[in-house]
Structures are given as C-alpha cells and as structure tokens.
Amino acid sequence: MALAILKVDGVLTELFDLEEAQRLIDAYALVHGVYTAVFGGAGEILLAAAQPSAQVCDLVRQTKPGEGMCRTCLSDIGKQSMLFGEGYIHRCPAGLVIWGAPLVSGKRQVGGLIAGQVVMWPLDDLVKREMADMAKRCGIDPHALLVAAEGVSSREPKEIRAAADILFALATHISTWNNTLLSQQRDVNTQQARLAENIIEKKRSLHSQGTGSGGAYPLEKEKELLGRVRLGDRTGAKEILNQILGDILFNSAGKPEVLKARLLELSVVLSRATVESGGSLQRLLGLNFTYVEELAALEPIEEICAWIVKVLEAFMDEAYATRETRNLPAVRKAVGYIRGHFREELTLEDVAQAVHFSPYYLSRLFREELGLTFVNYLTIVRMEEAKRLLLETDQTVSRIADAVGYQDPSYFTKVFKKMEGQTPTQFRR
C-alpha cells in the first residue's frame, strides 16, 4: 500500500492510500464524465483521473499566473467545503463550474477532491469576454481558451448538486479521517439556519404586534422542552431548544455574556429534569461542573449555541441510561395515539380508553412524565401540523383548521395566536 505523505502543521502525515484514491477518482470520472483530481493544501494537483482531461484547466496552468489562480481557487473550495460540511460548487477563474470536497487530517483541511469543468448555460458574450480578459492577464492565447471552453459539457443544476454530494462522500472515504468533524460542522450549520429562521419569525411577530421589544423569557417553551426531555424525544427537544435559543439570541442583542448567563440557567433546569427522569445526581453534578468550565471558555455565539445542544444530548443520555421505565411505555403509547388521531374530536377519556388507563391516572402521567397537561400536548401536536400546512400548502385557514381538529376557524385562529404570537395568516407571510 502506497501512502500520500503530506506535511500538516509541520509534521509529516500519512494522509491517504494513493492506490485506493487513484482507483476511486478514476471510477468517479468514468461515471460522471468529468475531470477529477486530488489536490493538496496549497491547491497543487497530487493525483488526477486518467480520463477525461480538463483542457481549459490545462491551458490555464501552463503559465505561472494561471497556475497561481487555479491553486488559489482550489484552496478556497476546500476551505468552503470544510466550513459548510458538504460538497462546494464554485465558478473557476475561467468562468466554468467546478465542485470540490475536503480531505482532512485531525481538525485541519489539508487538501481535497475537485471535479468539473461544466457549464449550466450556453457561453454567452459576457462570459466569453471574461474568459478573454483572464487569458490576457495569464498570458494565454484567448482564442485557444475559448475553443477549449466550447467543448465543455452542459449539466443541470440538480445534477451538479448530486455530483458534489457524492464527491463529498468520496472524500470522507479516501481520507484517513473519520468524518466526525464534518458531521459536527453540518449539525452546527443546520442549527444556525434554524436559529436564523426562529429569529426572523420573532421579528415578524413583533412587527405584526407593533412592539419593538423581545418580550419575556419563553417559559412555556421551556416547559415543553422539559416534557420532550422526559419523554425521550430528542428530535422534538432539539426543535424546541432552537426556538428558545432564537428567543434568547433576539433578546440578548448578540451579547455573548448575556447569552451565556441565560444558557447556564437553562442547563440547570435541564439538569433538574434529568434527575427527575432517573439520571444519577452524582454524575450530573460532575457533568455540570465540566460544562460550566467549557461555557466560560467559549467565545463565538455559534459555539455557545452548539454547547447547549451538546448539554441536552448528554443529559438525555444520562437520564435514559439509568431511569425507571415503568411509566414511559404507557405515555409513549398515549402520545402515539394522540399523534394518530389529533384530527378528530379527541378527549382525555378517548385516549385513556385506548391505552387502558383511567383518565385521572393518564392525566397524572402526562404531568409527571411530560410536564404538560393532556390539552397542552394535544394543542402542541395540532399546532405543529397547522404550521406545516401553512408553510407547505396553499390551503385556506378554514381548511387547515378543520384538518387539525378545529371545527371553528375563529377558535383555531385564537389558539394559534396564543401559541405562536401571531395569526395563521401572519405566520404564512
């Protein structure tokens, strides 16, 4: 086995298997019909697929200025792909479309894979002028460059996106690195996107209400979060947590210290809920001490927000590693029944009968395990579906009200506004 040896942070590092990398990029190039290569941290080409060639790239790299432009371009693509945790699509210096993915050693992007060149549209006069100007700057024959570009194949945007995603998967396989870092980065970026959406929704709500302040801490959402934690609903807990973070960020005006203080309070609440759910008090005290130290050292807001998600995951792991599960199956059965029948006129008695409990006992279980009443939980489920229909369909508010279990559209609107701070129509805008 031949290994690629590169210097990473001044240390010679075995980055990947050369023979395996060559075999895989040859296969990728054959399937996708595009030039495919491995590049180093400075943008230098280390390996290239045998076929096809990249005539435009070959011409540009013949000159020192052109070589420098290509190297800078590839280096930037690797960094951007690393940042976003996915294949990155870019226009090369010659104006053609290429895409890339990072090779990583430790926590550093030290190279990557590159594929292309293609076009998504016919070469118009503007692009041709840009290519001619670039050719002159690099000392390349403009006519020869344009002739080479005319032979480049055309691809649909969705094809390029799919090819970029596959190249990213290929890069994680070729690299000796185990893709945990990019997976974490992808999670962080997803969270940041959701936070941005929540903040925008908050601004819209305040604008529609004619108020300029963020309002009080979202206690109702906190109660719902704790209910999701007690139920073991990780996806739902993360969603509610992001909503809370959006509110906190909006009200903290982007001040890290204010954000830290709020999140420290929230971590204490989560810790208490974890103990109530069966987690070890001794273990959680140790975790709390560790997390407080970690939080103090964090600076960028995105890292602080990622920290509270990690805390949530750890606390839920701790709770369900040791907790008594006597009541949990019953609650989950009731929750499943509600989610399957929330469109109907549903009562506590109906659910209790379905899961073979008395209404009183089921009501107590909801409060103990979820921190919510039956009505609270049913309303949350209905509002989740209503929001989905408002955003994803063009159905009228009346039709949506009926679809989620409300015969009276006016009452539906009243409940929706109480839960979301705005009317269904305002939410849809």
Number of E strands: 7
Q: What fraction strand? A: 5-15%
- Mean pLDDT across the residues is 76
| Morphology call | elongated
Given the structure, what is the number of helices? 19
**Domain tally:** 3
Output the structural class: alpha+beta
Distance between the terminal alpha carbons, to the nearest Å?
Answer: 59 Å
Helix content: 55-70%
What's the arrangement of strands in the largest beta sheet?
Answer: 4-3-7-6-5
Radius of gyration: 28 Å
Poorly predicted regions: 1-5, 7-14, 177-182, 210-214
Major sheet details: 5 strands, antiparallel
Report the order of strands and helices: EEHEEHHEEEHHHHHHHHHHHHHHHH
Report on the structure:
This protein is α+β, with helices and mostly antiparallel strands and 429 residues long. The protein has 3 domains: 3-178; 183-322, no CATH class; 328-428, Homeodomain-like (Arc Repressor Mutant, subunit A), CATH 1.10.10. 66% of the residues lie in helices and 11% in strands. The protein has 19 helices and 7 strands. It has helices at 18-32, 55-60, 64-84, 125-138, 142-150, 157-174, 180-209, 219-231, 234-252, 256-276, 281-297, 301-322, 328-341, 348-355, 359-370, 374-392, 397-403, 409-420, 424-428; strands at 3-8, 11-17, 35-40, 45-48, 88-91, 97-105, 108-118. The protein has a 5-stranded antiparallel sheet. The chain has a two-stranded antiparallel sheet with strand order 1-2. A hairpin with a 4-residue loop joins strand 3 (35-40) and strand 4 (45-48). Helix 1 runs antiparallel to helix 6 (157-174) and helix 13 (328-341) packs across helix 14 (348-355). The longest helix is centred in the middle third of the chain and has 30 residues, at 180-209. It is elongated, with a radius of gyration of 28 Å. The N and C termini lie far apart (59 Å).
